[in-house]
Amino acid sequence: MKKILINQMPNMIGEDVKLGAWIANKRSSGKIAFLQLRDGTGFVQGVVVKADVGEEIFQQAKSLTQESSVYVTGTVTADERNSFGCEIQVTSIELISEAVDFPITPKEHGTEFLMDNRHVWLRSRKQHAIMKIRNEIIRATYEFFNNEGFVKMDPPILTGSSPEGTSELFATKYFDEDAYLSQSGQLYMEAAAMAMGKVFSFGPTFRAEKSKTRRHLIEFWMIEPEMAFVEFDESLEVQENYVSYIVQAVLKNCKLELERLGRDVAKLENITAPFPRISYDDAIEFLHKQGFDDIQWGDDFGAPHETAIAEAYDKPVFITHYPIGIKPFYMQPHPERDDVVLCADLIAPEGYGEIIGGSERIYDYELMKQRIKEHNLDEEAYKWYLDLSKYGAVPHSGFGLGLERTVAWISGSEHVRESIPFPRLLNRLYP
């Protein structure tokens, strides 16, 4: 008997097979039992007919508990009502391990309860679908950057200083000196770009920001490309092409998952480059016309402001040229203005907020020294970074995409905590 996976079943119609699976749910109707089986690749129905299998196997099927693990054998048959277009007519069941009192039953549960049981909540259909979409975004990310000639490089997680020049860092001891969990790999990726030309990283980052919003995590994953000889507008083109690519990949390869989540795919089908652009100046003017009198030139945008701007467009929108005073030290000033920098945030539609922040980077040595001083940073700690402006400096640009916000947006999830397997929140370090 050939052992297969659920996602292989559509190609096995009419064949006798063996599945290793968990019981996601079950129901019985008279002399037929219906087993909802899952194996990580998908969900499928197993049909147990008493007249075909006999009393003993039928009673065994009826007594199976939620999340018990089994081997089932049977014949794959076509059934267009099921997501894979097939089901399995079960002929025998082998119990591997019986699950007793599985905590997440087919009823409503509170968020805190589900988060306490995140290790098993991941097994649910919705969470399974979100994780599959996350995986597809990661797969498509590697594919996009490899196709575009980028080299994958890995920045350190333990650092001696802050890339953003902030105090929102997790401190630790590195033997006899202070170290911090990285909040961005950007500075190291700039060094890598000076060696390799076009590079990208994909790894965890940490922000000690005491925020409880649906958009924030303490630990999250970032995709951070850096590109030598690439200027601001060229970087925006890479960003919109990349986002378009991952959205279209999800539409192509995660149809079942999007359907399971009830996602409006028409909104995603519209996500193709180019994306609209609005300057910070024009965004302030737009918000004033929308009644946001609280925001003034020089202020950073909050969630309500970003949402209002996003609602004016049916695609992600770039907000460009922010004031120099609210952006990090390394951003290249506008060539014709001394009050704004060559940067952009990409705001996702439907209220999901910023998913990308990027800029052209300063490459003038004296200007970089000046900016480090203006931000009260320790020049000695940034000596290696200054070297990049000292030895063969070139125009270069980069950006960072927050994976979890992107997953939340594409999957239509209400809260970013569902877009990572084990979220780290302000008051949550378990499980």
UniProtKB/TrEMBL annotation:
CDD domains: AsnRS_cyto_like_N, AsxRS_core. Keywords: Aminoacyl-tRNA synthetase, ATP-binding, Cytoplasm, Ligase, Nucleotide-binding, Protein biosynthesis. This is Asparagine--tRNA ligase. The keyword Cell division does not apply. It comes from Chryseomicrobium palamuruense. Residues 131-431 form the Aminoacyl-transfer RNA synthetases class-II family profile domain. GO terms for molecular function: asparagine-tRNA ligase activity. Its EC number is 6.1.1.22.
